[in-house]
User: Fold this.
Amino acid sequence: MDKIKFGTDGWRAIIAQDFTVYNVARVTKGLADWLLNDHEKPTVLLGHDCRFGGPLFTETVAKVLCANGINVVMAKGFVSTPMISFGVLQVQAQQGVIITASHNPPTYNGYKLKGAHGGPSNPADIAAVEALIPNTVDIPKQGMKYWEDNGMLRYINLEDMYVAYLEEKFDIAALNKSPFKLAYDAMYGAGQNVIRRLFPSAVLLHCDENPGFHGQAPEPLDKNLKELAKTVATTPEVKIGLATDGDADRIGLYDEDGNFVDAHHIILLLIHYLHKYKGMTGKVAVAFSVTDRVKRMCEAYGLPIEITPIGFKYISEIMTKEDILVGGEESGGIAVKGHIPERDGIYDGLALYEFMNTTGKTLKQLCEEVYEVVGRFVYERNDLTLENEKKEAIIERAAANGYGKFGKYGFNRIETIDGIKYHLDNGGWIMLRASGTEPLLRVYAEGNGKEETLDILEDVKTTILA
Assistant:
């Protein structure tokens, strides 16, 4: 029996190949044994997003947990990952589980673990669960009604609870009257009902259930959001475009001209808003792949900063121990002070929508404020699908200092916290890293303009594939 391994954010695999009912039951038995080591009568909050097979796999988790004496609180219908993390705190569960493969292609599903603190389970706990996953498992034959009748299973409406929470946190009435009209692309994901309920007049795209995501990975990158970009650019009253991924924990944004605002800029905007405008303080924690411009802003504002390996679980763990203002990743997973220690694309989007509405400034104008502090920059990423042998050979060569330069671009410093980051002579940077959730080699680049950044990526690709 193959060993099941959790990656950067959960266990993910192709449906019917490795992500099967049986393997889901194996993982759940490992989770049950781990919980029972420390808790006499633990409770798990459980849910699934919009992906194919979500209800089937979620019922499998529920049955195995109940059969092992663990109480299950189960979400009605599809939910987002932030709803599960938020709900864990509300029902005081010892663990949260959501069946989701996040932004992965539609052929995947996955299994995310959420801790009692309301965010991703910490790396040590995930490793402990992983070590307890058995090779064989018995899947209970009793149906869901049996466990419900025996008091082991009950249902909860997390969507209602989460919407009510957002209505407490933000002045939704004021945002609905904003001169800056909102367009939202759910990417057929779990955020669709929330925005529909909060903003009835918003322009909605892909806000219907499609378990195959129309064949496209629900990752909020510019290349996947061309319809949203066009909608914003060609609808005069729309001044902000918001997108979230399949489980709504990642964010993508567009300004009033239909230009993509990437996660680096979003992190900077949130730091700028929370500290400069709202007077909030705290440490900033960002993943290794985030722009160094965040360091520059923290220096300007006198805020401490910590750089973590890739994976929001590392940031969330810090958030449970320290006062964190903003914690974020290049991938669009960002958490802010005053909310749960979890990425939340909708919450982040509302915070920036509020920023626009209270200042009367567009996203483009607010980005100009950021540039006044950190300087202008452009970031791009290229995901290369490669055979594992080639991917590993490139990473091994990079780790052994095997690249002297990338085309015309030389570098003066290398960092290796998680992946290999090259600091370029022109002030930009390049980073190489193998994905922890997909068969990809990620190539990250930052330059002083779009043309230069794309040229950097092309030179890197030519060099490493030679």
In short: The chain is about 40% helix and 20% strand. The chain has three domains: 11-161, 170-374, 378-465. The CA atoms of residues 283 and 322 lie 8 Å apart. The radius of gyration is 22 Å.
